């Protein structure tokens, strides 16, 4: 519980929003972090109580899955909080680079490639992926190149390099696989840390606040909507969206979960960690929830096609990185662009 | 033992590059004398298997490598030494200096060895037939545990003819030890050993 003590002491000592605060973690983000930690404490407690029930009506496998999920969130929160405490967004960018790298290796490991793709893959892993994150770290000055590097140069390079390797078997399919991996795991995800560099806010009040709160808000809503949709599906689900892909995702769960997420989102805006007012925040939460559900479903479809349960089945049974970030990957670019277009002067 | 930093460094590097996860199926890491025999698909197989062993076991395990390749130039020699490798002469084979004899001499009554009975690298889809070395090892030293190892996905990480790795995820699976049965013929034993490696693929 050392981590708790550290974060609470930081909360107590951090001065109220100051321009150019030394830490990314300022007052508003601190409150958000406090809310998250309280929720995690409650979730951990609930998990332990459920587990101790001698003979409950709850399926022990579900309780186990819940406890494991809560543990993963603790880890994520801890890592994020620590990177926020380092006085530069670079730590967070580097963290997301590592996540992208790992997700991409899970993705490519799962989708078969041929010997002819070897050199292409080498450049994808060791040139395109780092380059994308270097551009993120260079901030909004590199926005143009950052937003086209992979879809323009990267995609054309992949096609050309595979052609040069001279293996034409399943050519189109192989290009598409590598491009999809690059797009989902690297390009889309890199929009999450890019949130830290947004500036030129239309709301002068928000100009004073660090954007760490915005990133934290995004991650929180995405994870929360995923959980709420799951819980609501369990409680009142009837009509399964795509039975062959995911038997537990229902329309009712999706709608109810998204609704609850919107309410939570509206309440979170009151912390001042985001530039949104309550109703704007509710709309943003709904969009994140929809994109998150779409991402989870799409990534499940890939898994079903390859006949695996989790991306992590490759690694010791527990869920892989991709299983944790599938919702983020689809929601991040949309959330980033909507925020940029409507809440900063750069976009408008 | 000499102070060796390169060995642990190489082991760590190989594990990061190949993202390997290790599984022991009906078998546990042990410092008793063993022959680990594995499918051969890539240059770095030996390093990966060696790196997958816990440190105390690793210190007592020597990957077997070809002398003609690993004795060329100071760098390869240095790598081979860091990895604790035993270099076996493939070219000057004489009656009293067969690879099996020199291997047995090197491991003495202390070390274990990692060998690739296919002789050379396969294409990653099917295992080649095993060469007879494993049989003679088992015959001369029936006390050695023969542990099958399956290395998964290494062909894609570093295929034959490539020198730059693609960091995909790989798996190293150790299976239950086998022994040479009394009076078991060579071909049957080798087929059974090959089968024991293939079976791990399905794990």
TrEMBL record, chain A:
Transmembrane segments: 31-50, 70-86, 92-108, 120-139, 145-168, 180-198, 210-232, 253-276, 282-302
Record key words, sorted: Membrane, Nucleotidyltransferase, Transferase, Transmembrane, Transmembrane helix
Pfam families: CTP_transf_1 (PF01148)
GO cellular component: plasma membrane
One GO BP: peptidoglycan-based cell wall biogenesis
Keyword Transmembrane helix appears in the UniProt entry: yes
Molecular functions (GO terms): nucleotidyltransferase activity
UniProt keyword annotation of Plastid present: no
Name of the protein in question: Phosphatidate cytidylyltransferase
From TrEMBL, chain B:
UniProt keyword list: Acyltransferase, Transferase
Listed pathway(s): Lipid metabolism
InterPro entries noted in UniProt: Plipid/glycerol_acylTrfase
Biological process according to GO: phosphatidic acid biosynthetic process
GO MF, one example: 1-acylglycerol-3-phosphate O-acyltransferase activity
Entry-linked Pfam families: Acyltransferase (PF01553)
Coiled-coil intervals: none
Ranges where the Phospholipid/glycerol acyltransferase domain occurs: 34-154
UniProt-listed SUPFAM superfamilies: Glycerol-3-phosphate (1)-acyltransferase
Protein name: 1-acyl-sn-glycerol-3-phosphate acyltransferase
């Amino acid at each position: 519980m050392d981590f708790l003590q550290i974060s609470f002491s930081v909360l107590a000592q951090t001065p109220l929003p100051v321009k150019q605060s030394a830490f990314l973690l300022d007052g508003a983000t601190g409150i958000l972090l406090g809310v998250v930690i309280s929720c995690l404490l409650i979730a951990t407690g609930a998990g332990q109580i459920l587990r101790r029930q001698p003979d409950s009506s709850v399926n022990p496998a579900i309780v186990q899955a819940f406890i494991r999920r809560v543990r993963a969130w603790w880890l994520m929160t801890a890592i994020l909080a620590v990177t926020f405490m380092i006085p530069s967004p670079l730590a967070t960018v580097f963290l997301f680079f590592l996540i992208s790298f790992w997700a991409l290796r899970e993705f490519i490991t799962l989708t078969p490639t041929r010997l002819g793709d070897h050199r292409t893959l080498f450049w994808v892993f060791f040139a395109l992926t780092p380059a994308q994150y270097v551009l993120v770290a260079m901030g909004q000055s590199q926005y143009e190149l950052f937003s086209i590097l992979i879809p323009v140069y990267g995609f054309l390079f992949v096609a050309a390099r595979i052609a040069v390797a001279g293996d034409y078997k399943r050519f189109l399919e192989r290009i598409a696989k590598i491009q999809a991996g690059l797009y989902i795991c690297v390009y889309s995800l890199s929009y999450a840390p890019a949130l830290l560099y947004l500036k030129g806010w239309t709301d002068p009040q928000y100009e004073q606040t660090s954007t760490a709160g915005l990133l934290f808000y995004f991650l929180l809503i995405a994870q929360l909507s995923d959980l709420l949709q799951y819980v609501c599906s369990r409680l009142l689900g009837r009509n399964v969206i795509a039975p062959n892909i995911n038997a537990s995702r229902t329309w009712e769960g999706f709608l109810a979960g998204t609704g609850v997420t919107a309410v939570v989102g509206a309440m979170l805006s009151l912390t001042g960690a985001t530039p949104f007012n309550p109703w704007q925040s509710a709309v943003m939460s709904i969009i994140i929830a929809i994109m998150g559900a779409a991402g989870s479903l799409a990534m499940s479809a890939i898994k079903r096609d390859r006949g695996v349960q989790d991306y992590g089945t490759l690694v010791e049974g527990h869920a892989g990185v991709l299983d944790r970030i599938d919702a983020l990957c689809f929601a991040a670019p949309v959330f980033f662009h909507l925020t940029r277009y409507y809440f900063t002067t750069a976009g408008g | 033992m000499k102070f060796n930093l390169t060995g642990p460094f190489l082991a760590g590097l190989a594990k990061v590059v190949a993202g390997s996860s290790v599984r022991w199926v009906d078998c546990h890491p042990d410092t008793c004398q063993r022959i680990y025999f594995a499918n051969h698909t890539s240059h770095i197989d030996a390093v990966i298997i060696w790196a997958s062993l816990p440190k105390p076991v690793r210190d007592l395990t020597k990957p077997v490598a070809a002398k003609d390749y690993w004795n060329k130039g100071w760098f390869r020699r240095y790598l081979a030494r860091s990895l604790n490798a035993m270099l076996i002469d493939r070219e000057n084979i004489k009656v009293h200096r067969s690879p099996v004899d020199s291997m047995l001499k090197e491991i003495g009554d202390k070390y274990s060895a990692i060998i690739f009975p296919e002789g050379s690298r396969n294409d990653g889809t099917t295992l080649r037939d095993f060469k007879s070395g494993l049989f003679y090892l088992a015959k001369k030293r029936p006390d050695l545990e023969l542990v099958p190892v399956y290395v998964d996905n290494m062909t894609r990480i570093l295929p034959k003819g490539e020198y730059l790795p693609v960091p995909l995820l790989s798996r190293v699976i150790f299976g239950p030890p086998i022994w040479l049965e009394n009076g078991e013929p060579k071909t049957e034993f080798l087929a059974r050993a090959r089968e024991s490696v293939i079976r791990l693929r399905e794990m």
